[in-house]
Specification:
CATH superfamily of the largest domain: Potassium Channel Kv1.1, Chain A
Largest sheet: 4 strands, mixed
Radius of gyration: 23 Å
Number of strands: 9
Number of helices: 21
CATH class of the largest domain: Alpha Beta
Structural class: alpha/beta
Order of helices and strands: HHHHHHHHEEHHEHEHHEHEEHHEEHHHHH
Distance between the termini: 16 Å
Shape: flat
Length: about 425
């Protein structure tokens, strides 16, 4: 059976707009996916001359920026002048009128706005950058070592090297936050030095690989003008790195292996689950039900938490160490653990799922789906729906069908 991704590529080559619209909007297929030839759905649409499909993909946020590898390739391969003009129109090429990936958009917004930032970097050229210490520690061994060592507790860091310019430092932060890099070729050497300094070997390797590819492309096609290098994000790697913050926030007794070297990642929000006879918790004390998190992540990903923590009618109080504290009477301990894991890593983690039988696991997923609906976390709700698909049987299919319609989950309903 053909996969949704393969179907998207085939539909773009054929110009089947209705099928592409269904795959993108109903099946949640990644729009900027690449095949074995490093080609995207937009490239095939341009190559085959499907103007309406090209416009649709651009409006949905397909990557195609001028002076980049993807942008120049689409322009070079476009079948018609109208498509070429459409791609060169900056108002279209840079459009992101619909950002479909809420997690990527959240990280991009966190980077661009600096909301909730707790450290400021001052460069020699006078430029300043706001950042979040927890995220830098999760993504870079260099920042983890320094913010838990010589920079511990500091909210301002001066970068004294005149060889580090603002463009390169901004590109480094962009990579740490979003996994994406956009850097002018004349600043590439500076960014490579920064990647080496901050122990980001993967970033350095990918930049060198892309530079080598561009050199070969310009030799083969002298008329192609590329001034900017763009690296698409490896979101799987970003999620793996940020899982570190979820582990640091989670009470030790809930982790598969207790961490003896736990370090402080500067939490500023404590979420406490209500105790329940249904919760399988090894320790009954209050601390065992508390998750030390970060408001930038928790409130940034959920309007429910933003209102519960920051509004004038908030029930949140303050702990002795100045951390905001919120009791959640609507969640069990296990559900809160899954919510925290999702907030940081965008992944579905059911606490002790391996220890549950099929009926208990099914019930746990249903309860978490209801919690996700209450907490305004549609992404977590969709992940729960995907897990339910693997547990359908003759006894529960009617209940799941009703639930999918109630919660507006067309993929589960299908």
């Amino acid at each position: 059976m053909i996969s949704d991704t393969d179907s998207l590529f085939q539909s773009c080559r054929r110009g089947d707009l209705a099928r592409v619209r269904y795959l993108v909007e109903e099946r949640d297929v990644e729009l900027n996916v690449r095949d074995q030839w490093d080609s995207t759905p937009l490239y095939y649409s341009c190559l085959c001359g499907h103007e309406d499909l090209v416009l649709y993909l651009l409006q949905q946020g397909a990557t195609c920026q001028a002076s980049t590898f993807d942008g120049e390739r689409c322009v070079y391969g476009a079948l018609t002048d109208r498509i070429r003009a459409m791609l060169l129109d900056s108002s279209v090429v840079t459009a992101h009128s619909m950002r479909r990936d809420a997690y990527s958009e959240f990280l991009r917004n966190l980077f661009s706005t600096g909301s909730g930032a707790d450290v400021r970097f001052n460069l020699c050229d006078g430029s300043e950058f706001l950042a979040h210490r927890c995220l830098l520690m999760a993504r870079s061994p260099y920042f983890k070592r320094n913010f838990s060592g010589k920079w511990i507790g500091r909210r301002q860091v001066s970068v004294r090297s005149p060889r580090i310019d603002s463009d390169s430092f901004r590109a480094l932060l962009q990579y740490l936050y979003t996994g994406r890099v956009e850097i002018r070729l004349d600043r590439l050497d500076s960014l490579l030095r920064l990647a080496d300094k901050t122990e980001l070997e993967e970033l350095r390797a990918r930049l060198l690989q892309r530079q080598s590819g561009l050199d070969g492309l310009r030799a083969a096609k002298p008329g192609m003008r590329v001034t900017t290098i763009v690296l698409d994000p490896d979101m799987d790697q970003v999620k793996r790195d940020l899982t570190f913050l979820a582990d640091q926030a989670t009470p030790l007794h809930l982790l598969p292996e207790a961490e003896s070297d736990r370090i402080s990642c500067y939490p500023d929000l404590c979420l406490e689950a209500e105790s329940s006879s249904e919760d399988s918790v090894d320790s009954p004390d209050v601390a065992s039900r508390q998750f030390r998190c970060h408001r930038a992540f928790v409130c940034g990903r959920s309007d429910y938490f933003r209102a519960a923590v920051d509004s004038e009618l908030s029930d949140a109080d303050w702990l002795a160490d100045g951390v905001r504290h919120l009791r959640l009477r609507c969640l069990s301990f296990g559900e809160l653990a899954s919510v925290v894991a999702y907030v940081y890593s965008d992944q579905l983690v059911i606490s002790r799922d391996d220890d549950l039988d099929d009926s208990s696991s099914f019930a746990a997923i249903l309860a978490l789906m209801s919690a996700a609906d209450l907490l305004l976390l549609p992404g977590l709700k969709r992940l729960c729906a995907g897990r339910l698909e693997t547990r359908l049987d003759c006894d529960n299919v009617a209940d799941v069908l009703r639930l999918s319609r109630l919660m507006r989950l067309p993929r589960l309903e299908d």
